[in-house]
């Protein structure tokens, strides 16, 4: 996702660090949409540390734009970055609205917010940022472990599965047993019957009709010899 600078001219923009465990995502989206945000930028778990979309957004913001965030700890990664961000917004006259901190830099929303609330937000920022970072890293590590734990299918097994699929598809298409046998590459015709039986395919070819009997039954061996 590349943020075009031309889209932001005196605009309302939303930004959310949308990690998997963040339970207010839909609520924040609705708030931002109701406020009139023309776009909501959402960063995902694996980008929590580098935040490429946040960096693009900082470049794209124009003088007089309005930026809506869920919390300062959701968008900012530390006290030093907070100071730099606030100076950036001051210079560019960008209005910042933090929904859950209930802070509006233009003092139009949240009139009940006091200076002590702002100071409390700043004091809690490092702890909240660390908690969010740990949650994001945990989700990324968990996903990596889940992928690593998936059983690996060898090329030999894949070839076997492809051969069995060929037998089943040819039989379902109405091809004779002999043609299926030659196409499958098996050394014996009995292998074709074995695969059909394995996958529960009911035989419907003349002498080969109904369920396949056990190998030690004489009539089954005769049927195989005649086919």
UniProtKB/TrEMBL annotation:
Q: Which InterPro entries match?
A: Resolv_N, Resolvase-like_N_sf
Listed SMART domains:
Resolvase (SM00857)
A Pfam entry, by short name: Resolvase
List all Basic and acidic residues biased stretches. 214-227
Give the Resolvase/invertase-type recombinase catalytic domain ranges.
Answer: 12-138
- Chain segments carrying region Disordered: 204-227
Specify the signal sequence span. Answer: none
The superkingdom listed in its UniProt entry is Bacteria
Q: Name one GO molecular function term.
A: DNA binding
Q: Name the chain's protein.
A: Resolvase/invertase-type recombinase catalytic domain-containing protein
Q: Which organism is it from?
A: Phocaeicola massiliensis B84634 = Timone 84634 = DSM 17679 = JCM 13223
**Organism placement in taxonomy:** Bacteria, Pseudomonadati, Bacteroidota, Bacteroidia, Bacteroidales
């Amino acid at each position: 996702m590349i943020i075009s600078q031309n889209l932001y001219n005196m605009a309302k923009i939303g930004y959310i660090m949308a990690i998997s465990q963040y339970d207010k995502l839909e609520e924040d989206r609705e708030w931002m949409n109701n406020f009139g945000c023309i776009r909501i930028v959402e960063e995902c778990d694996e980008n929590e540390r580098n935040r490429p979309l946040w960096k693009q957004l900082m470049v794209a913001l124009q003088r007089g734009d309005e930026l809506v965030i869920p919390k300062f700890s959701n968008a900012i990664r530390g006290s030093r970055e907070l100071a730099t961000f606030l100076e950036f917004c001051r210079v560019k006259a960008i209005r910042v609205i933090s929904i859950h901190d209930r802070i509006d830099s233009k003092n139009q929303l949240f009139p009940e917010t006091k200076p002590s609330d702002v100071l409390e937000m700043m004091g809690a920022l490092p702890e909240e940022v660390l908690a969010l970072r740990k949650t994001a890293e945990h989700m990324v590590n968990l996903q990596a472990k889940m992928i690593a734990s998936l059983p690996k299918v060898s090329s030999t097994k894949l070839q076997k599965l492809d051969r069995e699929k060929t037998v089943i598809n040819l039989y379902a298409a109405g091809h004779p047993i002999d043609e299926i046998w030659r196409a499958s590459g098996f050394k014996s015709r009995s292998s074709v019957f074995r695969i059909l039986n394995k996958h529960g395919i009911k035989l419907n070819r003349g002498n080969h009709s109904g369920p396949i009997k056990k190998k030690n039954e004489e009539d089954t061996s005769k049927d195989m010899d005649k086919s």
